[in-house]
Amino acid sequence: MTQSPGALLGALRTSPPLVQCLTNYVAMNIAANVLLAAGASPAMVSDAEEAGEFAGIAGAVTVNIGTLSAPFIAGCHAAIAGAKAAGRPWVLDPVACQATALRRRVSAEMVAAGPTIVRGNASEVLSLAGEESQGQGVDGRDEVDAAAPGARRLAEKTGAIVAVTGAVDLVTDGTRVARIAGGSIYMPMNTAIGCSLTALCGAYATVADDPFDATVGALAHFAEAGRAAHPLADGPGTFGPRFVDALRALTPEALDRTAEVRFQ
Ligand SMILES: Nc1ncnc2c1ncn2[C@@H]1O[C@H](COP(=O)(O)OP(=O)(O)OP(=O)(O)O)[C@@H](O)[C@H]1O
Ligand SMILES: Cc1ncsc1CCO
Ligand SMILES: [Mg+2]
Description:
By secondary structure, the chain is α/β, with parallel strands linked by helices. About 50% of the residues lie in helices and about 15% in strands.
């Protein structure tokens, strides 16, 4: 690893990047607040008429297929083309891509467009890798380790960094593998936390030389904020605001001191 999570967090806080988020109705407000607390500047811009143009001024683009519609898909393609034309990183969150024919088609088209980073739960990554998935709608129902071989193959085939999230997260570029521990059992009980993490991967990608380091950094930031917020919460409801507070409170020094990142 060339740039540590703390070094990248320090860079974010010094100069908060503009991140264009094309995300779902559920995540819209949650992801924006997460980015602001973490140290980035979110803009939810998804209409096809302006999404490509906006990608030219954004530091990164993040695309999440959680609530699909024809106009939204057109906006995603415009933003992806804009990001590629401007040489900006873009991140794909293939929400529930195993669930329907539309999601399988749209997620496959987007993977073929060459994302910088793909971030999903284990069930989504298994499906993208062409394997059997137990996912229940947007909720993951598979273990991260079960998706590890598929994640490596997907990364190798597409050139994307693939992040599989769950109790212990995994990041791979097909060769390197990192595992990130931490977080809280309340995280999967809080809707759109994963969608927000995808948006944060975009923010980290703007300050990293290597999108592998960016992905590890964003996941470590979430893991440590989740760990810190857990004992302050009475349950999933109070966890949400505590988690946002913890994203903000975490310092670059504390992140590097406590992050549990293992490389293999
Ligand atoms: N059992 C767990 N223990 C600790 N952290 C967890 C656990 N499950 C998920 N997380 C953390 O929650 C965050 C979101 O991961 P998750 O796999 O739940 O995403 P997701 O299924 O795409 O979420 P959503 O679609 O609801 O936004 C990650 O930071 C992950 O590490
Ligand atoms: C609940 C839900 N439904 C579509 S997207 C979403 C947010 C979590 O992925
Ligand atoms: Mg998700």
